[in-house]
């Protein structure tokens, strides 16, 4: 069509798969099947039974049993860290890690693990 990927497509794809693979995909414009997309890191999972909603619910359940604060911290660290150089990203991670240690989640998680019960994390 005589265009490039818009809306940040050239930039996001390069960050996901690296510059070489990004160029190859964009120069050739060849379709990528699900298995190849998984191998390249374009997708995080592929549903074996063609039921993506079932897979999404399984992943959501796995996430939901973990600390909401820790999940939010992971999201913030990854999203914000991509905009920072490595030392600044490591500093952000250290600060969030310390906050999580101090908020009681670690104590609850350890107590639940050793007590063989489900944790009840602070929100």
In short:
It is built from seven helices and no strands. With 123 residues, the chain is mainly alpha-helical.
Please characterize this protein's 3D structure.
- The chain has 123 residues and is mostly helical.
- It has a domain at 66-114: Lyase 2-enoyl-coa Hydratase, Chain  A, domain 2, CATH 1.10.12.
- It is 65% helix and 0% strand.
- It has helices spanning 9-17, 19-28, 34-40, 52-64, 68-81, 86-102, 105-114.
- Helix 1 packs across helix 2.
- The protein is flat.
- The N and C termini lie far apart (49 Å).
What is the helix/strand order?
HHHHHHH
Query: What share of residues is helical?
Result: 55-70%
Q: What count of helical segments does DSSP give?
A: 7
According to CATH, what is the topology of the domain at 66-114?
A: Lyase 2-enoyl-coa Hydratase, Chain  A, domain 2
List strands and helices in order, with pairings.
Layout: H1 9-17, H2 19-28, H3 34-40, H4 52-64, H5 68-81, H6 86-102, H7 105-114
Helix pairs in contact: 1-2, 5-6
Essential attributes:
123 residues; mainly alpha; Lyase 2-enoyl-coa Hydratase, Chain  A, domain 2; 7 helices; 65% helix; flat
